[in-house]
Structure formats: structure tokens, C-alpha cells
Amino acid sequence: MSISKCDILIHGGGPVGLACAAWILQKHPEAKLILLDRNPIHDEDLASADSRGIALSHGSKILLNTINAWPKDFAEIHRVHVSQAGRFGRALMTREELNQDALGHIVRYRDIHLALRQALKAMQATSGNFIWQHLSNGDDGDTISAKCIVHAEGGLFKKQDWVESGRDYGQSALVGLVEVENAAPHQAWERFTSEGPLAILPSHYGSNILNLVWCGSPTSSQHRLQLHNEDFLRELQKEFGSRIGRILKIQDRRLYELGLNYRKVIAKDNEVWIGNAAQTLHPVAGQGLNLGLRDAFLLSEKLVDTFSRQPKDQSPSELQNALQSYAQSRKADRTTTIGLTDFMARVFTSNLAPIVVARGLALSALQWLPPVKTALARQMMFGRR
Ligand SMILES: Cc1cc2nc3c(=O)[nH]c(=O)nc-3n(C[C@H](O)[C@H](O)[C@H](O)COP(=O)(O)OP(=O)(O)OC[C@H]3O[C@@H](n4cnc5c(N)ncnc54)[C@H](O)[C@@H]3O)c2cc1C
User: Fold this and answer.
1) I need a labelling partner for 320 at 20 to 30 A (CA). Which of 48, 195, 335, 349 fits?
2) Contact status, residue 345 vs residue 384, Cβ threshold 8 Å
3) pLDDT-based confidence at 345, cuts 50/70/90?
């Protein structure tokens, strides 16, 4: 059994692992880098993969554009309407008041994944020391010795082989595509129901086809998954009211379990954890991948800084210092994003009377206090710097 050697070994060819590899090679094409990927070699074999809509922020668009990995199919959000079912309090955010071209973008997971694979493939020709190894079942790349190990194995809540800090919200998300008659173009709707957040977001298929993310208890979500289309549409329309327009069709329903799972320590010795391997969030604020991309970008800078030096300046202690400095630099962004998402997931699902009233007041405050609204929107769009 021969042992391969490299400077950096990335476990995981999801969006975050791919982006990290691409940013490393862009800045340091000579990097001795191995990427271990469990996904199929050929893009066509990913065709039926995860098609859920992901909200990507303006900050993520800027980052992905630096490596030509911004997908060609996406929908822009120009307005977000936030309300609570059957209670007072609502807020409207528009791109004009925040002086942005868009408040966010909705892209299918598989399109982000494919765009990143293509961007990385384009870099392979000029990266002589880069190995992209596709793993078959039972193979875990344990014949590789690396100076630094990056964990980007990602995963979904309750499907990961580690559990550290966090919370089980006792919720599932039902996602799918809905057709809405005369839907307002580029408008996103977020509605807080007694069971959890319900979002309807634009899609690149056209203004009448929208992405649905309906959070509820695992039992009701399972029930909704199995409902006949007409019954499902009736329940959804009842929950949303008439403001959105008549909901005509539903397709491609899937369920995801939701929770928070995060590591307190994201760098130890020569290992570092990024993306969902470091923190798995509730999708209420649409922050998981946005945060993961920021992890990948900042880590790539630290690793390039270390591994582009002369070999004599690449000691294990230099690397450990670089990883500790990375962990320190991610602290504020991680704490704020994890905290804000956890807060929203809990507060917006509580039915306790004082919290319901406070929630209405908070939504009204967002509407009437522009600085609060702008600060929240900036955190969502760019993260904490
Ligand atoms: C319903 C839902 C809606 C969401 N909406 C949003 C949103 O609107 N905005 C947002 O920013 N985020 C959203 N997210 C979160 C987002 O999907 C994740 O944060 C993102 O996918 C994390 O990317 P990742 O590369 O870290 O992990 P993953 O996407 O899980 O990819 C990890 C990859 O690693 C591979 N792998 C696993 N183990 C190994 C191994 N041992 N060796 C090699 N490879 C391995 C897997 O095959 C996979 O391809 C949502 C999540 C859910 C569930």
C-alpha cells in the first residue's frame, strides 16, 4: 500500500470543500492539494441531485464570482414580505431602501454544486500538484498523509456522524416548487406560523414558479408530504392567506429534518472544520451555505499564506498558528450568524402569548425603524466582518 503525501487534504466535495480548493489554487496554483470527493465523477450523474432552492447573499455572489463559479440560472429577490399568520406585525424590505441591486438570490443547490465543479475543473490544467480523487464506497482515503486536514464533509442535521453543541427544534422542512397565479415578480414571502416559518421564494423557472420551504413538526410535515396535491394546496393556501395569490400546483416535495449542530472548537492541531462540518443551521435565515463560503474563503487565505512560504517556514507550529488565527478570525461571524439563526428559529415558532406579542412588535419595529432593518439586512447579506 503506497502512501501519498500532500500539504493540504480536503475531505468533502460539496460546495464548501470545492470552493475552498478553488480559492487555494487560484491564489497558489502550485499547492500540493488533494480533494477527496464522494460525489460521482461525471456531472451528468448529479443531474437528479438535490434541487432545493438556496438563498445566496450578495456577499456570496461576490465571492463566487472571483472564481467564475456564479451559476447562470438564478432568481433575484427585490422585496421580502415578512408576516405572522393570524397575528399583528409585518415588515417589508425592498432593495431600493437598502440601495442594493438585489436583497438576495435563489439558486438550486445542484447548480451551485455544478458551477463550483466546473470552476475547479477549469483550474486543474494549471495546477500541476492538485489531485481530485473520487472515492468509491468503502474507500476513505486513509493512505494519504497530509500536513493539514480540512474537514468539509458537510451533511444534514441528524445525518452527521458527530453531535456537539446545539438544539433539536423538533421541526422538519418540507420543500418543493409551487405555481402561483400572477405572483409578484422577485418577491419573497416569509410567514411565521404556529408551527414554524413558511417561506415562498422566487425561482429561475419564471415569476409564477416559486420555491416553497414549509417548516413544521415532523408529524405534520410527514402528513403534508403524503397529502394529495389538491389537499396540500388547500392547506398551504389556508396558512398563507390570499395576499400571495392563488396557489395552483405543487411538485417535487421533499423533507429535511432541522436542527442546530455546531462545533465549539473548529481548529485543533493540524485539523480544521468548515461549512456544515463546523456548523449546521436551521434554514430560517438562509445562512448555512453563505457562512460556509465565508469559512472557505478565509481559510484559503491562511493556508496559502502558510504553504506558499519556503519549506523551512512551514513548520507544524507555523501551521497551527495559522489555523488558530483562522479560528479566531471566524469567531464573530460564526457567533453572530449561529446566534441570530437560533434566535429566529426559536422565537418565531413559540406560541407563548408574550413572545407572540413581542414578535409582532419586533416586526413592526423592523418596519418603522430603518436603521434596525438595515443592520439586520447587512448581516444577512454580508455576514460580520
Ligand atoms: C431545507 C434546507 C434549506 C436550506 N436553505 C439554505 C439557504 O437558503 N441559504 C443557505 O445559505 N443555506 C441553506 N441551507 C444550508 C446549506 O444547504 C448548507 O449549509 C450547505 O449545503 C453546506 O455545504 P457543505 O459543502 O458544507 O456541505 P454539503 O452540502 O453537505 O456537502 C458535503 C459533501 O461532502 C461529501 N462527503 C461527506 N462525507 C465525506 C467523506 N468522508 N469524504 C469525502 N466526502 C464526503 C458529501 O457527499 C457532500 O457532497 C439549507 C439547508 C436545508 C436543509
Assistant:
1) 335
2) no
3) confident
Domain residue ranges of the chain, discontinuous segments joined by +: 4-163+260-382
Confidence at residue 371, expressed as pLDDT on a 0 to 100 scale: 60
Q: Is 188 in the pocket of ligand 1 (CB under 6 A)?
A: no
Tens-place pLDDT, residues 203-220: 999 999 999 999 999 999
Indicate the SS3 state at residue 110.
Answer: helix
Contact 326, 302 (CB under 8 A): yes
CA of 141 to the centre of ligand 1 (A): 20
Q: Ligand 1 center to residue 85 CA distance, Å?
A: 30
Distance CA(27)–CA(48), nearest Å, equals 33
Strands 279-280, 247-262: parallel, antiparallel or unpaired by DSSP? antiparallel
State pLDDT tens for residues 237-259.
Answer: 999 888 899 999 999 999 999 99
Strand order in the sheet with 104-108: 53-56, 104-108, 75-77
Mutate which of 10, 54, 171 to test ligand 1's pocket (most atoms within 8 Å of Cβ)?
54
Tell me which DSSP letter residue 379 carries: H
pLDDT score for 88: 58
- CATH superfamily for 4-163+260-382 is FAD/NAD(P)-binding domain (3.50.50.60)
pTM of this structure: 0.93
Residue with CA at minimum distance from ligand 1 atom 53: 256
- 257 close to 218: Cβ distance less than 8 angstroms: yes
CA-based nearest residue to 255, from 298, 297, 285, 212: 212
What is the spatial distance between Cα 212 and Cα 217, in angstroms, rounded to a whole number?
16
17 lines ligand 1 (CB under 6 A): yes
The response to whether residue 152 sits with its C-beta less than 6 Å from ligand 1 reads: yes
Cα–Cα nearest to 110, from 65, 45, 189: 45
Atom number of ligand 1 nearest to Cα 55: 8
Q: Is the CB of 286 under 6 A from ligand 1?
A: yes
